[in-house]
Amino acid sequence: MANSKYEYVKKFELDDRLPPSNWLVVRIDGCSFHRFSAIHEFEKPNDECALNLMNACASAMLEQFPDIVFAYGVSDEYSFILKEATEMFQRRASKILSITVSFFTSVYVMKWKDFFPQKELMYPPSFDGRVVCYPKVKIILDYLAWRQVDCHINNQYNTCFWMLVKSGTTEYEAQQVLKGTQKQEKNDLLFEKFGINYNTLPAIFRKGSCVYREMVEEVGKFDRNGCPVKRTRKKVTVGHFDIIKTDFWREHPYILEDNYINASGIKQL
């Protein structure tokens, strides 16, 4: 582009490149999704179609952006882990946020009919985002544990709340019943009043969703000796696991880079 006397305006732009040697977490949240879910009549406390739509959007993110190594989602929120050495968009925070959030939102709209074929999208959804740097794998694991603990706390409360409301209790009364209750008390309420064993509810509700690249073996064409040729590739997969314990990470060491993980647990703490 040719220089001009107006080019000085570029000096007002801020350099928002994120520091190197840090893992990046992009967290995308729905804006005013209480209203959005009410207008679109999402099932309470969990709408599995809505959750699967979010999972499809997260899967599309991993397909689109190779530097995203893992994603964790619950309700209208998804966190995306970008590898430590990423140079995606030159690590510019504004570019990373604007492109990932807009891509996620556009996929949500495009895939709406796949999950809600009988429902019209009444108005466009919107999502916001933030990007945070984390210098160690341990902090990434603690971040993901924090989000999964939140998933459990919120889902257990919401399950109790909406079961009470559906049984005829007002929303205010349900809030008062649950005020100050602990985990076991909520479990007892669900079992004694509604015959629900919380631990048998679908894992997608209790544990949230993990999106990652699974190592899979495929059988291809035959070689000259007539033997099938096998190859290993990474396939974007959705699962619902406990990611607070180390079992998942020991079984998938390549997600957060093999040199950080061994059979006894997490290295580089």
UniProtKB/TrEMBL annotation:
Q: Does the keyword Lipoprotein apply?
A: no
Residues that, per the record, bind GTP:
29-34, 75-76
Provide the binding site for Mg(2+) 2: 29, 76
Please cite one Gene Ontology biological process associated with this protein: tRNA modification
The subcellular localization recorded is: Nucleus
Question: Which keywords describe this protein according to UniProt?
Answer: GTP-binding, Magnesium, Metal-binding, Nucleotide-binding, Nucleotidyltransferase, Nucleus, Transferase, tRNA processing
Q: What job does this protein perform?
A: Adds a GMP to the 5'-end of tRNA(His) after transcription and RNase P cleavage.
Which named protein is this? tRNA(His) guanylyltransferase
Organism listed in the record: Acorus calamus (Sweet flag)
